[in-house]
Amino acid sequence: MTASPSTPPSPSPAPAADAELARRRIRQRRTLIVLSFVLIAAGIVVLTALPRLPLPMRILTGLGDIFLGMILLVVVRQHH
After folding, report:
1. N or C: which end of the chain has fewer CB within 10 A?
2. What is the pLDDT of residues 9-61, one digit of tens each?
């Protein structure tokens, strides 16, 4: 009985796909963090620097932006 020569397994494309997935997740995380800080900053600007906008609309829009930015930060922290 002769033993057949064993050939080494070919390298699977999984490590390359894993690396691409990791880069994509890092890019998405960075984008969401930047977007959340932009939303928070925009909310602060709306609350403080737009006197021509009626006060109830300023409060609604400004606080809405701030809360959405904070929610995005929580989502990023929970998901990534």
Report:
1. N
2. 655 567 778 888 889 999 999 999 999 999 999 999 999 998 898 999 999 99
Instruction: Kindly report the pTM of this predicted structure.
Output: 0.74
Report how far residue 25's alpha carbon sits from residue 38's, in angstroms, rounded to the nearest whole number: 20
Angle among Cα 5, 9, 12 to the nearest 5 degrees reads: 170
CB 69 within 8 A of CB 39: yes
User: Using a CB cutoff of 8 Å and minimum separation of 24, what contacts does 20-28 make?
Assistant: 25/80, 28/80
Please tell me the predicted confidence (pLDDT) of residue 44.
96
12: helix, strand or coil: coil
